[in-house]
Design brief:
The chain is of the alpha+beta class. The protein contains three helices and seven strands, in the order βαββαββαββ. It has helices at residues 20-33, 73-84, 112-125, and strands spanning 11-13, 43-51, 56-60, 90-99, 102-103, 130-134, 139-142.
Length: 159
């Protein structure tokens, strides 16, 4: 028997410690929460991505009475980028959540399905995508999707 130890490096900092680009991206994600369609959960999530060309694109979660038919903010944003900017690499994604009249005190992280989609984008362009996960109190930052999705499923397994 052998044991495998996995570690993840997460940098934790405050909004004041962010550079201007990161602050702008986080603000775009926060703003995107205000346009989420969340009549059932009332839990608004916004995502914003920084493209290689410097553009910031944002999106939000979209719910549906048939719950599995909704879509998370991260996937809404990434799928829009893939459809409209197919050759643009995503350098960074920021995520924020708004609930009961305020931004969350706990850091918001991507769900498993979103992690898999983000990994696909990272693998497609063969470069890491930084993830900024926002809360009112602190921001978690990882340098790659692989940091939050160890032992991931990828295209190499389909060969």
């Amino acid at each position: 028997m052998k044991e495998i130890n996995l570690t993840t490096k997460i940098t934790v900092y405050t909004i004041e410690e962010c550079n201007e680009t990161e602050k702008n991206l986080i603000e775009a994600a926060k703003k995107a929460t205000q346009h989420a369609y969340v009549p059932y959960s009332k839990f608004s999530v916004g995502a914003a991505v920084l493209l290689e060309n410097g553009e910031i694109i944002s999106g939000n979660n979209q719910e549906n009475a048939a719950y599995p038919s909704g879509l998370c903010a991260e996937r809404t944003t990434v799928f829009f980028v893939n459809a409209n900017y197919p050759d643009q690499k995503i350098l960074t994604i920021a995520i924020a959540a708004f609930y009961k009249g305020k931004f969350t005190k706990e850091v918001i992280t991507p769900c498993g399905a979103c992690r898999q989609v983000l990994l696909e984008v990272e693998n497609r362009f063969n470069m890491p995508m930084k993830i900024l996960m926002y809360s009112e109190e602190e921001i978690y930052c990882v340098k790659s999707v692989k940091d939050i999705l160890p032992l991931s499923f990828g295209d190499s397994m389909l060969r």
